[in-house]
Specification:
Elements (H helix, E strand, L loop, with lengths): L5 E4 L3 H13 L3 E5 L3 H11 L3 E2 L3 H5 L6 E4 L6 H10 L3 E4 L7 H13 L4 E3 L7 H12 L5 E9 L15 H4 L4 H17 L3 E9 L4 E5 L14 E5 L5 E8 L3 E8 L8 E8 L3 E5 L5 E5 L6 E4 L7 H4 L12 H18 L10 H20 L3 E2 L1
Parallel strand pairs: 1-2, 1-4, 2-3, 4-5, 5-6, 7-12
Antiparallel strand pairs: 7-13, 8-11, 8-17, 9-10, 11-12, 13-14, 14-15, 15-16
Helix pairs in contact: 1-10, 4-5, 5-11, 6-8, 8-11
């Protein structure tokens, strides 16, 4: 069991994924803070947690808590993370880490000043076969990367009656599909190839310009059917396509959409190199496609006994035993907590506050490009 003890702020869809992963790792979870004392107590009782915190100040003052997971709406991240860092806590924050690069830069400096570790939950790079692909690319298995392309498609906001707080700019920010799922894809592409995006050319669109906002509370991915609504104008992006130029003359393109019927959470990427290709789809996460020119293509089923040593440790179960979305949280948290426990000065393998800052800078460049209709350097 880890000597570090944790707490979670926010117990919605993603907060509960954090709680489950912490329990699987045997990391002591001391309590939860929700959006009111009453909801905190209800969540504590439902999930059988030791403590229900009544305020951020009460949580920050708990000397037994070492790490806090911030799983609240985007507009709260900076204030909560900065207060926790000042209180001496390590912070693992949901993305985006802040609402803008000014805030994210301040978090980097606060973490440095207080000698705390800050991580951002770009968990999708922790699918075992994504780890395998990265190791193969780094080893030269597909030669020099030439192209990286793909998409992240969902349908959970397909209807005008679909609603979530991310649709409101004051809560989620000026970008939505790009910020919410596009940053996952961009993180994946850069991490897989080891190349940073240096220039973007973007096209954004609000496919559904008016939506029906429920007058009652609706959790993420839950239907608002039967709840009274009111029409609201929408300005955030349902869709985006972005041309990419990365370091080393690597070229790419990303498409994201939250209005693509039948696509539930399809993060798809392909890297084409001078000697071969690799491709992955998160809706079939236990299969990695390997492309060749002069021999038959291959498909690697997730099996740690067949994976490279660098990736093998990110697969917890033997071949034939499926690993998916919840397991990515476990593997990221394993890296994060191990880094804190070691007090390491080495380069962290998990996504850091710097990662989150860089993604926000990319979002700024994408927004500027779409607005001005030109290539923009990052």
């Amino acid at each position: 069991m880890s000597p570090l003890q944790s707490a979670v702020i926010g117990a919605g869809f993603v907060g509960r994924a954090h709680i489950e992963a912490l329990r699987r790792l045997g990391i002591p979870l001391l309590g939860v803070l929700d959006n009111s004392p009453e909801r905190s107590e209800a969540t504590r009782a439902e999930l059988r947690l030791p403590r229900a915190y009544r305020s951020l100040e009460e949580l920050g003052a708990d000397p037994q808590v070492n790490v806090v997971h911030v799983c609240t709406p985007n507009h709260l991240h900076f204030a909560q993370a900065s207060a926790l860092l000042r209180a001496g806590k390590h912070v693992l924050c949901e993305k985006p880490v802040a609402m803008n690069t000014r805030e994210s830069a301040a978090l980097i400096e606060l973490a440095r000043e207080h000698k705390r570790v800050g991580g951002v939950n770009y968990n999708l790079r922790y699918y075992p076969l994504c780890q395998e692909a990265r190791a193969r690319i780094a080893s030269g298995a597909i030669g020099e990367p030439r192209l990286v392309h793909g998409k992240f498609l969902q349908d959970w906001l397909f209807y005008p009656t679909d609603w979530n707080w991310r649709l409101e700019t004051e809560l989620g920010g000026d970008l939505r599909a790009v910020s919410d799922i596009g940053t996952h894809w961009l993180d994946m592409a850069q991490w897989l190839t080891g190349r940073k995006v240096v220039e973007v050319c973007a096209d954004l669109a609000t496919i559904i310009p008016t939506r029906q906002r429920p007058k009652g509370r609706v959790e993420t991915f839950q239907s608002a059917a039967g709840i009274a609504t009111e029409p609201v104008k929408i300005s955030t992006d349902d869709y985006a396509s972005v041309l990419l130029r990365l370091e080393g003359n690597l070229r790419g393109v990303m498409t994201v959409s939250q209005v693509s019927a039948g696509r539930k959470a399809a993060l798809m990427w392909e890297v084409n190199g001078s000697e071969g290709s690799l491709a992955f789809n998160s809706e079939s996460p236990n299969s990695l496609w390997i492309g060749h020119r002069k021999q038959a293509n291959q498909e690697l089923m997730k099996d740690p006994s067949l994976m490279t040593p660098a990736a093998r440790g990110y697969s917890a179960y033997p071949g034939g035993h499926t690993e998916g979305y919840p397991d990515t949280f476990v593997q990221l948290f394993k890296d994060f907590y191990a880094y804190i426990e070691k007090g390491s000065n080495s380069r962290p393998e998990f996504p850091t506050f710097q990662t989150g800052h860089d993604e926000l800078a990319l979002c700024d460049a994408i927004a500027e490009s779409a607005r001005e209709g030109r290539w923009v350097k990052t």
